[in-house]
Amino acid sequence: MMKIVLTNHETGLNPSAEELSRTILARIGLEPRKSGSTENMHKILLELYEKSKIANREKKPEAAIMTVEEMALHAGITRQTMYDYLKRWLDYQLISKASYIKDSKVIIGYKLNGNTLESAFDKAIQSVSNNLDITKKYIQELQKMVKNEKISASMTSNSLEEN
C-alpha cells in the first residue's frame, strides 16, 4: 500500500542546490522519517539527475542507471536500508527499475523516470493526482450512500408509523 506524505517544508533565501534538493524530498515525503537516520538522501536525487544528463549527452542510456549499492553509498546508509527507501521512490514513480548488460553480466539498478528532474517529477505529480482522483470518487460514493441510507431509514420509519 502506497503512503503519500506531503509537507510544507520551505527553503531559506537563496538556497543552494543541496538545500533545494533536501526541501524537495522533504515536501514529497522522501526524506527519512526517523530523525538522524541519514542527512544525505538528497544526494541520490542530485546524482540521478547528473547521470541522466550524462546519459542523454553521450547517448548511452545505461549511464543513467544507479545500482542500489551506489545509491546507498551516496546516502551513507546500508544497501538493505536503501531497499526500504526505494519503495517510496518507486511508489511516486520518480524513478524506475532498469537493467543493462556489462561484461556479459546483467546490472540492475534505477534511473530517473524521465530525461530530466522535471519530467520525472511530472510522473510523481500524476501518481499523487490519480490517488486524489480515486479518493474523490470514494467521497462522492460515500455522499450518495449516506443520502440513500437516510432516505431508506425515513421511508422505513414512515411505513412503520402507518401500520
* Main pleated-sheet profile: 2 strands, antiparallel
**Structural class of the helix and strand makeup?**
mainly alpha
Give the helix level as a range of percent. Answer: 55-70%
Strand content: 5-15%
Low-confidence stretches: none
Structure summary, number of beta strands: 2
Straight-line N-to-C gap: 50 Å
Query: Which strand order do you get reading across the main beta sheet?
Result: 1-2
> From the alpha-carbon coordinates, what is the Rg to the nearest angstrom?
23 Å
The shape is: elongated
Q: Quick check: average pLDDT? A: 91
Number of helices: 5
Reading the helices and strands in chain order gives HHHHEEH
Structural features, described:
The chain is mainly alpha-helical and 163 residues long. It has five helices and two strands. It has a two-stranded antiparallel sheet with strand order 1-2. It is elongated and about 85 Å long.
